[in-house]
Amino acid sequence: MIGDVLYMKSAKARKQRKRMFNATLNVKQKLVAAHLSKEMKTQLKKRSLPIRKGDEVKVLRGKFKGTSGKVTKVDLKRAEIFVDSIKRKRINGEETQVAIHPSNFVITNADMNDSKRIKKR
Hints:
This protein is of the alpha+beta class. The protein contains five helices and seven strands, in the order αααβαββββββα. It folds into two domains: 1-31, no CATH class; 33-120, SH3 type barrels (Roll).
């Protein structure tokens, strides 16, 4: 299953979407990755990392382009990232966080408190 999801054999968009939506959470963790900033690339000698809670990110595309902040929540089921500084007002006046796809981010500072993450790099 892992190989099928990450390296999709079918060219049909319908089948690719189906495999992505039905993927297991350990596979979706790899799909919730973003590129590293230039400084982080030279420091870690990697191109990208999976986004985790506590990472500092910057939005590259969309309505919130240029906004930076700290990741507060990662929703693997829907492949969405929530950042503390990206909010919108609802009709009743309260503020809610906006979910953004991980491909729209660049990681500016990765949280390296986790021993497993340090070991992987």
